[in-house]
Amino acid sequence: MFRPCSSRRRLIASVLLLSAPLSAPALADEPPPAEKPVSFMADVAPILVRNCIACHNPKKPESKYVMTSFAKLAKGGKVGEDITLEPGKPDESYLVELIRHDGDPRMPYKQDPLPAAEVALIEKWVSEGGKYDGESPDEDWTFLLRRTRKVEVPEAYPVAVPITAVAVTPDGSKVEASGYHEVTAWNVADGALAGRLRGLPERTYDVAFSKDGKWMATAGGDPGLYGLAKLYALEPGAEPKFVRDMAEAQDAVFAVAFSPDGAKVAAAGADRVLRVYDTAKGDLLLQIEDHADWILDVAFSPDGKLLATASRDKSSKVFDVEKKESLVTFPGHAQPVYSVLFAPDGKAVVSAGGDNQVRIWTIDGEAKEARKIGGFGGAVFAIALSPDGQALAGAGADKMVRLFNFADGKALRTIEGHKDWVYSVAFSPDGKLVASGSWDGEVRLSNFEDAKPLQSFLAAPGYKPPGDQAAR
């Protein structure tokens, strides 16, 4: 995605090359350097991820063939021996036969054939014994590949990236924003870059802090390929300290949330699985798959006993954390539901969706709509409740952040200025600040009381927009 290369860097590289001493020619009787064996993880695995895993994974095992563990990849598909790996014998390996250009059926199915060089590389790997150089033949090697893949995050972004997550730090001094394989921190006071937390998946979709200020969690992924939630410990004046990975999946993780006491952390995403972990120990406490499509948001009730979800399957649900069961389902939006939270008293759920509405519905016995908040000019992608529970912020496709009195739904004021869809919104811990992020990469910090702008910047470190005087 990023190619941080400038004419100055190219010039430096050429000068170094020209000034380097010339090597002595190789002696005629010197043997050529030994050819490096083909590595499954370094050479073969990336080819399979790009071309095969989307159709041959545990969730979508075409021809009953799962390729995400080496043991299953070697064993075969629906007939058990139809698609096999014969170490040292590429011509007898059905896996190789199918990727050759004359394969029948040729794979990838109904797509362009693999380049001849990639086919030859896989054939060579099989010829050399078809060895697996991961940790265990039964592990999900796609996860290992993603975990160990090194990504160079550019010091200066060549483009702005969509802001799919914003959150104000517990002390109120910084706003965290999603970046490219990182989360960036910006000073509330002056909008200056304050820190960069790297080592994350390509996109971050959610950032959450525990109320006690001890924990931070992120949710993200490489769309269609990999998803991961990450947990960090927070200490005053220090960078977030990585603790552990959570909710590793074959597609993006979209949401994370802490229980009010910080003892539990929930995560959910495109695999439709809701997971709850013990924050301190890391134990998996709950795992439920009850939605028919992606889970886009998750929220704890004020007492921490319930969880609400928002899903692309056009429903919102409430789950009992202790009993590990689904309680009620609300289908009132009849469109994808993007964001969810609990009312301050915990007796109702607030959800927002593609029907341009925020709906408040009860959870006692059955899900019944109590009232709704409208006035949006498009889908509502994000909602947030002020710390005192008195105000609701909603943002979405109409490029605005709208503020309402939560008790009666009365419109308070509108925050304008974004030029693209607003995907994320958050209050500061004291409720005086509203942070919002849009698809064009802009973060805006606004005063809650009068909706006046405080700071506005592109959350892309080092990026200079075309025409920017500083770039000339």
List low-pLDDT spans: 1-28
Task: Provide the spatial order of strands within the biggest beta sheet.
Answer: 3-4-5-6
What's the Cα radius of gyration? 26 Å
In terms of DSSP E residues, the strand content is: 35-45%
Overall description:
The protein has six helices and 30 strands. It has 472 residues and is mainly beta. A four-stranded antiparallel beta sheet has the order 3-4-5-6, with no helix packed on it. The protein has a four-stranded antiparallel beta sheet with strand order 7-8-9-10. A four-stranded antiparallel beta sheet has the order 11-12-13-14, with no helix packed on it. A hairpin with a 3-residue loop joins strand 12 and strand 13. It is globular and about 70 Å long. The model is unreliable at 1-28 (pLDDT under 50).
